[in-house]
Amino acid sequence: VAEVNMAAEKKRAVEKQMELLEKNEVPEEFEDDNDSSNDSEEFDDDVDSDAEAMEGINQEVNVEFEAREAQDSDFHGVRKLLQQLFLKASVNISDLTDTILTQNYVGSVIKQSDILEDDEEDMGDDDEVFGVISVVNITEKKDNESHKLIKKYVLDKCKECSDAQTYKTFEETLCGESQIGLLLSERFINIPPQIAPPMYDSLIKDIDKANKNKMKYNFDYYLMFIKTYRMTVYQGMSKKKKKGQGVLQTTYVNVEEEFFVEEADLKFEYSVEHEHDSVVDGKWDDEDNEMKPYRTVILLKADKLNTVVTKTRDEFSQ
């Protein structure tokens, strides 16, 4: 069971804004097109509204989540999470969801822990799927159409967006004799990374148990699709005074996945800017279209998984 504070990020953002207000500095979002301040009456209204927001945010809500075995009733919740990863990719998401539910002895879904009956109306549907983690063997059944579609999609994107040597290595690995596990870890965007270590620890135990039972989960590589955003950062400059060359910054939607990219044996990335990059219960503030959505595809040697999970545990365990 993981307990997380859902208010922390928003609280820090408002605290920063309040600090500017206390110094009589107008936050950038309050500036008009001519970089002038709003009149004092509007400014006072903003101060009052932010003070009210701070009062509400200071009332922290702790929500507990737990990993459960996936059930048939979780189909739509799991499919929705996979959709935010693959978007308009030529992947049979429904078939992939069915596979995850069929092999529910490996992996889990994340749901809210049991809550008191009086709190059910405030907390929403306690059977909602907030996250999913699993691994699918896409090598075992070579004639499986959904597995073939995943491999084809990876190779098509790699050929389009990477160099010839990277494509050749991806092709040899995916289409050769190596056992490939498609590692999937998705969750609501507002679920913090502290939930990741127990999710991966549980998955590793499930994989070990399956291998002891002579099941086909002894992988050579893990294939992962990782959600990222890119934006150009102009340090020390306001949005309306940008000049010169900025610094390209990559943001990981699931922040722990940066460790996977660092340890990856092979990788490439492609833009999904022209696809509708929807998320579950939250979205990035992309008002100025500065944050460009990408996907990073990696191959990670299976014997590195424990190393990556250890880094994740050291960084994010509560």
TrEMBL record:
Residues 27-51 have a biased composition (Acidic residues). InterPro entries: BCP1_family. Residues 18-51 are annotated as: Disordered. GO terms for cellular component: nucleus. Coiled coil: none annotated. Pfam families: BCCIP. Belongs to the BCP1 family. This is Protein BCCIP homolog. It comes from Owenia fusiformis (Polychaete worm).
